[in-house]
């Protein structure tokens, strides 16, 4: 017989073996789960009439989480005490805390509140509707949401309606009747009752379904919708609205001694004046952003305790800002430089540009060393750009395939306040002309009494060229990097040479645009010619296929 010790050892090993073999492990590898939870059952059933329950139970095919409940879940009509959402395994319980009104259709909108546990796949636009009477409201509104500037469908935009009698809550609290657009920009609002509604679309950043003008894009249908039957093709265009009242949204005296401001509007002809202290005003240096919606200001005399700065636009005063400082304040300054190289390559049709973060007072050319294939070169020029005092251009007869090194020794550049650069080095080559091409665009406009703005966009959809068109023209766009470009026309109603956005308060829509569906695939060392017959504004055309530009 085996000893007692051996017996117990054998038993323990046997149990461990069974436990190890039977233990469950998560499968390793395999495809990522991209499927949101699926509804298996609703009790009572969706679209129930004569509803008299205090609780609804929805069963899913997997475990789930409830996320952003306060933002995503809503019930219409609203209740003073909203329903409670409670998880019970794979079941969701919706428990009513308030009594339900008689002969009323209720709609529960879950938005993006339901997501699976492991991958957070969201079950979008889950709704549950019921009626406490014999009749269920069943009207609907559907359509498509697009971006009015790009012409592209807006995905995951929020579309909501407000009864005209409750339109005053817009921008103050979220609407209880809402839905999200699908991957093609389409939406559908269901189980609506007969009423008069205002309809909006919102592309937001905060996710609270309340319009924030500074960050969100808004769209609306100006005239109320009198809903008496299912209504389709209610299309909405969203746009970034400019604030009606000017405001400086951010201002600060930076730790390097400069002043920065950000505005809620794009100004047309801004200017800055330092009040009371003429000597400080005379020596100031300022740079507005390209869109005139922000400012960087350098006051070279920092001996003041406080200073008043007046901001003007087109000669009219917008605001006066007071900046205070302690004379014991110290500042940390460093001269930082960027350039216009593209992945270490210099555009053969552009000068080499260096962009500094401080205005420059002095350049010591003896401390700038340029080498070409390791051979020192001195026949270069380094001068301030005529349009931007923060930019300097270095010109030299660059050669193909040569390797260049540009060394700025410490103290080569001196900015205001005496700040000097630390040693830095740039290495690059001249890009090949084979990487660039030219295209010619023959523009034919529908009405020579009106104004149009042509925009050329790169693959990132950034505007790289702009032309105002008032007559049929042939325009040459030379020496562009080989890539795919898009073209867009702005119907410039007020002839100010730019796209003007809309206004929610005034009920105005932005100026119309047309995004050319045919892109330009630029070829190297080739001059391509395109003819584009610009269509009339969308409102004057039927919904037919838009004419496309043709290649000559």
Automatic annotation (TrEMBL):
Cite the record's Basic and acidic residues compositional bias ranges. 541-552
Disordered: annotated span: 533-552
**Could you tell me the keywords of this UniProt record?**
Signal
Residue ranges of the SbsA Ig-like domain? 33-132
Pfam families, alphabetically?
Big_5
Q: Does the keyword Membrane apply?
A: no
Q: What is this protein called?
A: Ig-like domain-containing protein
Question: From which organism does this entry originate?
Answer: Pedobacter insulae
């Amino acid at each position: 017989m085996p000893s007692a010790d051996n017996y117990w050892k054998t038993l323990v090993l046997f149990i461990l073996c069974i436990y190890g073999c039977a233990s469950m492990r998560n499968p390793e590898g395999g495809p990522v789960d991209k499927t949101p939870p699926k509804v298996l059952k609703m009790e009572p059933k969706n679209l129930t009439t004569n509803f008299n329950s205090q609780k609804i139970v929805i069963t899913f095919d997997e475990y789930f989480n409830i996320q952003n409940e306060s933002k995503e879940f809503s019930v219409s009509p609203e209740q003073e005490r909203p329903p409670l959402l409670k998880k019970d395994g794979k079941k969701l319980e919706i428990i009513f805390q308030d009594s339900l009104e008689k002969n009323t259709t209720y709609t529960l909108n879950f938005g993006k509140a339901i997501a699976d546990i492991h991958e957070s796949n969201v079950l979008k636009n889950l709704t549950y509707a019921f009626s406490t009477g014999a009749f269920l409201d069943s009207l609907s509104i559907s359509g498509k949401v697009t971006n009015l500037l790009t012409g592209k469908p807006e995905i995951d935009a929020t579309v909501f309606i407000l009864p005209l009698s409750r339109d005053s809550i817009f921008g103050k609290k979220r609407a209880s009747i809402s839905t999200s657009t699908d991957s093609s920009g389409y939406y559908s609002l269901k189980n609506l009752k007969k009423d008069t509604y205002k309809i909006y679309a919102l592309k937001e950043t905060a996710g609270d379904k309340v319009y924030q003008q500074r960050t969100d894009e808004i769209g609306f249908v100006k005239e109320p919708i009198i809903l008496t039957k299912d209504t389709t093709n209610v299309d909405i265009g969203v746009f970034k609205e400019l604030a009606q009242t000017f405001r400086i949204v951010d201002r600060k005296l930076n730790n390097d001694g400069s002043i920065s401001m950000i505005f809620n509007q794009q100004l047309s002809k801004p200017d800055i004046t330092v009040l009371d202290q003429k000597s400080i005003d005379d020596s100031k240096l300022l740079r507005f952003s390209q869109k005139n919606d922000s400012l960087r200001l350098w006051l070279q005399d920092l001996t003041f305790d406080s200073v008043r700065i007046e901001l003007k636009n087109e000669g009219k005063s917008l605001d006066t800002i007071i900046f205070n400082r302690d004379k014991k304040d110290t500042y940390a300054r460093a001269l930082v430089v960027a350039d216009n190289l593209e992945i270490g390559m210099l555009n053969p049709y552009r000068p080499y540009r260096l962009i500094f973060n401080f205005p420059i007072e002095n350049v010591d050319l003896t401390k700038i060393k340029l080498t070409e294939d390791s051979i020192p070169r001195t026949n270069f020029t380094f001068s301030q750009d005529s349009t931007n005092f923060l930019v300097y251009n270095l010109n030299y007869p660059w050669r193909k395939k040569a390797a260049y090194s540009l060394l700025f020794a410490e103290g080569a550049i001196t900015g205001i306040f005496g700040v000097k650069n630390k040693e830095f080095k740039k290495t690059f080559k001249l890009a090949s002309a084979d990487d660039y091409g030219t295209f010619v665009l023959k523009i034919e406009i529908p009405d020579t009494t009106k104004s149009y703005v042509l925009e050329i966009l790169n693959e990132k959809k950034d505007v790289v060229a702009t032309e105002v068109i008032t007559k049929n023209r042939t325009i040459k766009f030379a020496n562009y990097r080989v890539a795919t470009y898009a073209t867009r026309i702005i119907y410039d109603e007020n002839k100010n040479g730019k796209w003007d956005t809309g206004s929610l308060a005034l009920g105005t829509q932005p100026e119309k645009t047309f995004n050319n569906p045919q892109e330009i695939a630029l070829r190297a060392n080739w001059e391509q010619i395109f003819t584009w017959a610009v269509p009339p504004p969308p409102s004057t055309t039927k919904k037919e296929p838009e004419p496309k530009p043709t290649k000559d």
